[in-house]
Write the structure tokens for this entry.
Amino acid sequence: MQIVVAPGGGIRCVYDESIDLSLLGKVQISRGSHVEPSKESYWFADLAPVGGPSLGPFLKRTDAMAAEVAWLEENWLFASER
């Protein structure tokens, strides 16, 4: 898990359960994407909640989720630092 600490003390990360974030302070979690199947059983990662694209199609949900995390880490996680 990558954690970005802003100069003001705010923390930004792509959430997973590898650490208990409540140990760092008050936690506010918001959705970064929606990983959903299509009618044809393909998977898509829709990153619209953070202003991103729709990724896919993927044959497996795990592939869509990996693409989702990779996109968030590359394009969103450090966005406030640039």
